[in-house]
Amino acid sequence: METVTRIAADTDTDTGTAPRRTPRPRADALRNRERIVTAAREMFVEFGPDVPLDEVARRAGVGNATLYRNFPDRAALTHEVVLSVTSRTTDRADEAAAEEGDPFAALSRFVHAAADERVGALCPMLSGGFDKDHPELLAERRRLEEAVEGLVARAMSAGRLRTDIAVGDVLVGLSQLTRPLPGTACLDIDRFTHRHIQLFLDGLEAPARSELPGTAATLEVLRRRP
Amino acid sequence: METVTRIAADTDTDTGTAPRRTPRPRADALRNRERIVTAAREMFVEFGPDVPLDEVARRAGVGNATLYRNFPDRAALTHEVVLSVTSRTTDRADEAAAEEGDPFAALSRFVHAAADERVGALCPMLSGGFDKDHPELLAERRRLEEAVEGLVARAMSAGRLRTDIAVGDVLVGLSQLTRPLPGTACLDIDRFTHRHIQLFLDGLEAPARSELPGTAATLEVLRRRP
Amino acid sequence: METVTRIAADTDTDTGTAPRRTPRPRADALRNRERIVTAAREMFVEFGPDVPLDEVARRAGVGNATLYRNFPDRAALTHEVVLSVTSRTTDRADEAAAEEGDPFAALSRFVHAAADERVGALCPMLSGGFDKDHPELLAERRRLEEAVEGLVARAMSAGRLRTDIAVGDVLVGLSQLTRPLPGTACLDIDRFTHRHIQLFLDGLEAPARSELPGTAATLEVLRRRP
Amino acid sequence: METVTRIAADTDTDTGTAPRRTPRPRADALRNRERIVTAAREMFVEFGPDVPLDEVARRAGVGNATLYRNFPDRAALTHEVVLSVTSRTTDRADEAAAEEGDPFAALSRFVHAAADERVGALCPMLSGGFDKDHPELLAERRRLEEAVEGLVARAMSAGRLRTDIAVGDVLVGLSQLTRPLPGTACLDIDRFTHRHIQLFLDGLEAPARSELPGTAATLEVLRRRP
DNA sequence: TATGAATGAGATTTCATTCAT
DNA sequence: CATGAATGAAATCTCATTCAT
């Protein structure tokens, strides 16, 4: 269920033909690709989606042409980053479902973990310049929605969540609230982010919560975050 | 209590000769200035803070140089837009305080009205490229904070708001949740915005709200929105 | 023999028609024209011939449109400045001729006075963008050349000037050596200007140094240049 | 002793892995850089220091962005041109010192050669828009001053130069007299340039004209200036 | 294949000149 | 007639993308 790195059509089935002394160089290429995506994810968060690709390449420690070899244009890189973040976020949802007993605690844990994965950074990327309906992306998004669906359904059927809440509400609210501000100002905001998504979460909680059970569970979850 | 248009340095210090009552021709100029700010506000919302200024000028119906005459650089224009939105938002807060009897309804009305004023559009502009600590801006921000402070305090002392809520929580949460996505995608999101801020608002409500009184009031408020 | 301010076609012969209560406003117009030319002369010297005309208008204390009413384009203003400087320089030559007894002293006085009139500022203006052969200008230049011709001839026939010197040598050398550097750096240079033109002048002086040893060597050098 | 092309920060500090002997591909880049500097030098001479950089790029036969890659702004290009001209002028001084026997001939040769190198083109560039005190530039200027110092000292101790002459007099006079006029007019002037610097040089020559009658008169004149 | 360099298209900003009051 | 404002054309500089080594 972990994130899998995809390399287009690189099935490595050429071992049967020529002796090819060097099967190794692929390692470097793969590593480069990873580093580019990582750098892009970080810099999209830090500087927004318009960050110069040359800068991304520089941070990744590769030449710009290497970036373009791997991702023919900005759309392709954005696509990969969105895919990557979506995938990692799904992983967090699965972890939360698997490891938290309390249904609301599971949801809370997921939400805070997703914030740490910078789901919010996806928002501005969704705005333009790449194909939001690419099949690969749709599939990954579906995976995420299903995972969150599970968390929501469980919390709801345990009577812990308002019944008028949809998965989309959680995901969109979460994304918006964790959207980083480009530039250094983001740090000030960052200190409040987890507090705000918790407030949002509180709004999702089922009423007659005079005891506020979710909040206690959530605080516990927050305490365990890295 | 309404927004006041500021013209830089209109000191009229004629050194004692003729009275020179009217630097009259400004009628057009003022109108142009207004139109530029309006166009900028709209386009910052629609396309983000990096929208080409030439496009802003085009939408305002003036030549690009007219824009630059009024606002020497992007920072100056951004400054004015932030000032304008802040001011208008404060006006909404004052209206809500004056015209709504129920304290929570007043807060709700403000929050939804602020969303309509596109407070969220301020977020990405706050990230960089202009002086966030300009005195004029600080003053206006203070005015807004005071107005919202009033709304929050009233709702809180009526026992309608959780007591651990600060003005900043409202403003930041509100801003983030209403932050527009550049590009056409924003429209899809927009349909949910008021729903999401209502959810957030619900999270701020005082517990033992088994009857959910605020929600009823809010729905009423929402119904009356234009 | 003093500089006369010229206003095109402003013969003021309209006193015979309508009663026209106000024959006065012309005074202001004339004054404005003078102030523009003065400001332009100063700023051409200080910032070079590309100084923004709006700045010239500002220094003159008039609106830019007033400048353009008097001088339809930069060429027209340049023309007037060149005319003005030429005229004033001629005045200096006439004064020197009239008031100095010693022929070489007269020439010297003229040269240094011309430097103070900023003849050098004319050089870059001569380079382009206006009609160097305008009859009005030709006439004024002729006046200057004649005046300097007189100074040179007198010094030469008194045996005080090398006989291979032409008026052009004096004027061009003088102009080049006094050409100001735009920007503040000119001040450093300025301190040396009079020294340098004096050195140049010394080169023009008739020898008692009949042997001129360096010149022979130099001619040989020049002959070998590519 | 010849001009050395400088490449910024080519420190080659490979951190110990493979030897990476050849950052080879620079052959073209270097050539481009040279061509840009050459084009800039020529066009600064021909059109003045405000010539559009796009035009410089065009003359160099490269895209404008290539120019900006090599020289981030006009100041950087100006810096390089000043450096280059200074360096080449120093080379001319060294050559003259080495190859001319007669001290005054050496100085003369240098002066005329410097004119051919267009030292005068440096003048308007020195006025603004770049750091005149950059260490690299100071060093190169020092080299030039030392070289000319040598020529002057030699001529002086051979009794061929007035003893009140400083290196600065030579360099400034030379620069001013050879300063080109932007625009086509420069050609007319150009024909006289060598003649004029020769006249200037003559002024520097030691008298056998011990009496210097004009100078006394001139000093009197200067004393009376306002 | 990976790289640094090159490129053209576009964004920002300035300025000479014209217009409306 | 004088003015401030408006304008488009041009200059500076940036960046996504392509090329050559």
How would you sum up this structure, described in words?
The structure is a homotetramer of 226-residue chains. Chain A has 226 residues and is mostly helical. Chain A folds into 2 domains: 25-72, Homeodomain-like (Arc Repressor Mutant, subunit A, Orthogonal Bundle); 81-224, Tetracycline Repressor, domain 2 (Orthogonal Bundle). Chain A has helices spanning 26-47, 53-60, 64-70, 74-99, 103-116, 122-125, 135-157, 167-177, 186-204, 213-224. In chain A, helix 1 packs across helix 2, helix 4 (74-99) runs parallel beside helix 7 and helix 8 (167-177) runs antiparallel to helix 9 (186-204). Chain A is elongated. The first copy, chain A, starts with 25 loop residues before the first helix and ends with a helix. Mean pLDDT of chain A is 78; it is low at 1-18, 184-189 and 208-226. Chains in contact: A-B, C-D. The A-B interface holds A 48, 50, 123-124, 126-129, 132, 165, 168-169, 172-173, 176-177, 179, 181-186, 189, 192, 195-196, 199-205, 207-210, 212 and B 48, 50, 123-124, 126-128, 132, 165, 168-169, 172-173, 176-177, 179, 181-186, 189, 192, 195-196, 199-205, 207-210, 212. Chain B binds a DNA duplex (21 and 21 nucleotides) through residues 23-29, 32, 52-54, 62-66, 68-69, 72-74.
